[in-house]
Amino acid sequence: MKAMTSTLALSVFTSSFRAFGLFTLLASSVSLSAQAKDNNQPPPLLVQIDEAREQAISQLTWVPGTVLSVIDANLASEVDGRITWMAEVGDVVKAGEPLVKVDDTRLSITRNQNASNIARWQSQVELFTKRLARYKNLQASQNTSRGELEEVEADLENAKQELAQAKLDLEFTEYQIAQSSIRAPFTALVVERLQSPGEYTGVGQTLLRVVNPDSVEVQVRAPLNVLPYLANGMSVTVHNNVNQVEESIRAIVPVGNTASRMMELRIAINPSDFPIGSAVRVALPSSDTHDGVTIPRDALVLRKSGTFIYQLNENNEAEQVKVTTGVGMGDRIEVFGDVNPKRSVVVRGAERLRAGQKVRYNDERESLTAKS
């Protein structure tokens, strides 16, 4: 009886174990199926995005320009003499500080001569003043002639004029001594030495070439056909291979060259934007302005069926939008189509996207990751 009971218990346990194993196997199969289904969904694709922008649009013409200092001067000496000292090329000298010194020994001697002449004519004035007083007393008592009195008066007036001239000579000599030290008329960067210390320089002979490094602008030669679309203060794009800035037109010279039919523009820039003498390119409007939507050129996806862009919805899903292109504006281009200017566009990785695919992205403004 005990053997039969044990056999029956063992049979029940075995049946229960087999049922539990079958349930576990079925659950595992369902789990694997769900996992396989999830694995068929591609993970969010890493892309780069930018903004679709509503802005004023016009056709742009790129023209060459040159960065130059507003003040580019060749400095000369107002006195002649031997150069005793000169600033080095590359020195930046503040306004009022010396750039060149010329030997002033000869001028110092002349100054002493001027001082001597002043003393001599001062004594002559005092002498003729006293003599005139005596002659006036004699004239009052009628002990001298009128002609002698007038002669003394003339001598006194001549001495006064000579004294005034001697003072002017001293003032001029002092001025020349001051000018023997050529000082910077503005904050000056020494670009070139045209003479060297030890050489003799003459009046008006160029010594140094200097520029003002704090006052910089772009000189542009532009075709006359863009003149109707330009205005002073208008913002334009200036760029070279390493930098791009938005600056304002300072001056327009609406006079064309008879040979090239080009006019001149001046665009004020910050001294740190570009080095003086560098070549840049400037984007000038060459058509009427209208409002539209622009995107980066890199956002366009070209297919045989047409041109597309991908915009992101609130779920970070890529939506394909068919577009046509319009006016190009540098690295951006006008587009027509069902483009939402409030949504970002994909500029990197768009060629691998499918409509509805989730993405994750990084840009300079923010860093977000779409939910899986």
Q: How confident is the prediction overall: mean pLDDT?
A: 83
Q: With helices defined by DSSP (H or I, 4 residues minimum), what is the helix count? A: 3
> What gap, in angstroms, lies between the N and C termini?
63 Å
Uncertain stretches of 5 or more adjacent residues = 1-10, 12-17, 19-38, 364-372
Number of separate domains: 4
Which CATH architecture of the largest domain?
Beta Barrel
Strand content: 35-45%
Total DSSP E strands: 24
Characterize the largest beta sheet: strand count, sense, and whether it forms a barrel: 6 strands, antiparallel
- Structural category: alpha+beta
CATH-defined topology of the largest domain = conserved putative lor/sdh protein from methanococcus maripaludis s2 fold
Based on CA inertia axes, which overall geometry fits?
elongated
Tell me the strand order in the biggest sheet: 2-17-21-20-19-18
Order of helices and strands: HEEEEEEEHHEEEEEEEEEEEEEEEEE
Q: Helix fraction?
A: 25-40%
- Our Rg estimate from Cα atoms comes to 45 Å
Q: What is the level 1 CATH name of the largest domain?
A: Mainly Beta
Say what oligomer this is: single chain
Describe this structure in words.
- This protein is an alpha+beta fold and 372 residues long.
- The protein has 4 domains: 45-55 and 290-368, conserved putative lor/sdh protein from methanococcus maripaludis s2 fold; 60-70 and 215-285, Elongation Factor Tu (Ef-tu), domain 3, CATH 2.40.30; 73-103 and 181-214, OB fold (Dihydrolipoamide Acetyltransferase, E2P) (Beta Barrel), CATH 2.40.50; 104-179, Helix Hairpins (Orthogonal Bundle).
- It has helices at residues 2-39, 105-140, 146-179, and strands spanning 45-51, 53-57, 60-69, 72-76, 81-86, 92-93, 98-102, 181-183, 188-193, 200-201, 206-211, 216-223, 235-239, 244-253, 262-269, 279-285, 290-296, 301-303, 306-312, 318-329, 332-337, 344-348, 359-362, 367-368.
- A 6-stranded antiparallel beta sheet has the order 2-17-21-20-19-18, with no helix packed on it. It has a 6-stranded antiparallel beta barrel with strand order 3-12-15-14-13-16. The chain has a 4-stranded mixed beta sheet with strand order 22-1-23-24, with no helix packed on it.
- A hairpin with a 4-residue loop joins β13 and β14 (244-253).
- The protein is elongated.
- The model is unreliable at 1-10, 12-17, 19-38 and 364-372 (pLDDT under 50).
